[in-house]
């Protein structure tokens, strides 16, 4: 059987994370379920909604024998890199880790996560939306529980669009989007930002997914890389290159940077195509635009279609090195399937739990949480639009089993197209070669088209 090589990236930031979490994991690598009712847990993750402190407090109140130390790792990429290093070292890993959905498979393959069917999680499949649940399976067993889901949405600043004479609700196709981009640029704003950094990787995969692209295919030990000749990729490349060439997108500002929040807050960036979990981030990152933002369904490549895609989504997993696996599972079950899931939904996380998605309270505009969000969005019933998107069809799409590397390499290679050094097609061709090299190093048989 193939031996998977672990991806290492020793950095000072990683060393710090490993150091502060050393108390939360085993040094001998042995699995240990521990006491389900008594433990001191270490939890790595990010907290863009600033709600983790309150949720953990509620969990600890309900489970007085368990304490949870949350270490904010900043981003999904930093978290997965730190976890790779801790697992490779055999110590310093957390008990619980937050991962982006596409990353879970890699850590399951390398035996870094606990098979949650040991705790009965395999019985929960029907309770979650199929999209996020299916991304967390390896050998038909769950290795994480989904926190949220992320159908790709079109968020736009109505005030900026109105200034440009653009009706956001009339944008139904990507051709409509292109025409709107030209009008918005005349006002001094950009319709969006595209910088090609690693933080832009998830919107990239969602956008090519919706375009019908299959840039990589995994068939057991075989991987096929097709970054530029695939029909969907050609459609995407041609469209985005046009936006770059005509200066219709901000190519200097990456997602999740301080400049990104500043430009969302002052109207320089007028729209985003991003996951349904975005409202709370707009509310905290662009407070001066309260009342101006709106959300709509994603533009389509063919008029009249209703094709969606998933942008990210995150999950909680129990790390194999943990000495407190039973208590760790109790925590992630609370956060994703128990009372904590509702608290997260109430604070802006777009849920993956069906009973929340289909509840009257989720789309009820009079609830306290919805009223706060809807006020920011100019009185629009936001969750009603998001719920519709969650029910739209999606094409099949695979992620590579070394997704953290794919995300990092994306920033290294594709950013060159946005700085104008090479074309997007050339950048993606180079990116494909790098992905192929990594696959071969990990023992896969790789074909590049």
From TrEMBL:
Q: Does the keyword Transmembrane helix apply?
A: no
- What top-level branch of life does the organism fall under? Bacteria
Pfam families annotated for this entry? Answer: SBP_bac_1
Q: Respond yes or no to whether keyword Zinc is given for this record.
A: no
Q: Which first-to-last residue range defines the signal peptide?
A: 1-21
Q: Keyword annotations for this protein?
A: Signal
InterPro entries per the UniProt record, alphabetical: Bact_solute-bd_prot1, SBP
- By its UniProt entry, which PANTHER family does this protein fall under? ARABINOSE-BINDING PROTEIN-RELATED, BLR3389 PROTEIN
Question: What name does the UniProt record give this protein?
Answer: ABC transporter substrate-binding protein
């Amino acid at each position: 059987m193939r031996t998977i090589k672990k991806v290492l990236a020793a950095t000072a930031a990683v060393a710090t994370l490993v150091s502060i979490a050393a108390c939360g994991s085993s040094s001998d690598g042995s699995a240990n379920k521990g006491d389900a009712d008594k433990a001191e847990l270490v939890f790595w993750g990010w907290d863009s909604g600033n709600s983790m402190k309150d949720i953990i407090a509620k969990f600890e109140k309900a489970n007085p024998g368990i304490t949870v130390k949350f270490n904010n790792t900043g981003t999904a990429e930093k978290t997965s890199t730190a976890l790779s290093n801790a697992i490779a070292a055999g110590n310093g890993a957390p008990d619980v880790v937050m991962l982006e959905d596409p990353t879970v498979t890699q850590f399951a393959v390398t035996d870094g996560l606990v098979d949650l069917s040991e705790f009965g999680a395999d019985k929960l499949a029907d309770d979650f939306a199929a999209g996020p649940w299916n991304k967390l399976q390896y050998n038909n067993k769950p290795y994480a529980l989904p926190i949220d889901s992320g159908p790709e949405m079109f968020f736009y600043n109505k005030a900026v669009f109105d200034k440009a004479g653009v009706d956001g609700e009339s944008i139904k196709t990507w051709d409509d989007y292109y025409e709107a981009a030209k009008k918005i640029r005349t006002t001094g704003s950009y319709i969006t930002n595209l910088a090609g950094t690693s933080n832009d990787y998830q919107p990239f995969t969602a956008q090519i997914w919706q375009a019908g692209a299959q840039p990589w295919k995994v068939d057991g030990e075989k991987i096929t890389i097709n970054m530029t000749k695939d029909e969907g990729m050609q459609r995407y490349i041609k469209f985005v290159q046009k936006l770059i060439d005509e200066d219709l997108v901000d190519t200097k500002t990456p997602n999740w940077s301080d400049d990104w929040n500043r430009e969302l807050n002052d109207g320089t960036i007028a729209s985003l195509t991003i996951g349904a979990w975005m409202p709370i981030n707009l509310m905290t990152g662009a407070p001066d635009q309260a009342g101006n933002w709106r959300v709509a369904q994603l533009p389509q490549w063919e008029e009249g279609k209703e094709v969606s895609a998933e942008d990210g989504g995150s999950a909680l997993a129990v790390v194999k090195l943990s000495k407190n696996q039973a208590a760790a599972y109790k925590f992630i079950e609370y956060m994703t399937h128990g009372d904590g899931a509702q608290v997260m939904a109430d604070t802006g996380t777009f849920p993956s739990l069906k009973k929340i998605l289909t509840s009257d309270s989720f789309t009820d505009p009079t609830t306290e949480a919805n009223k706060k969000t809807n006020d920011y969005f100019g009185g629009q019933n936001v969750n009603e639009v998001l719920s519709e998107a969650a029910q739209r069809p999606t094409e099949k799409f695979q992620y590579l089993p070394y997704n953290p590397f794919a995300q990092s390499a994306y920033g290294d290679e594709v950013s060159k197209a946005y700085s104008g050094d090479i074309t997007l097609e050339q950048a993606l061709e180079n990116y494909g070669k790098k992905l192929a090299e990594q696959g071969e190093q990990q023992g896969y048989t790789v074909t590049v088209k």
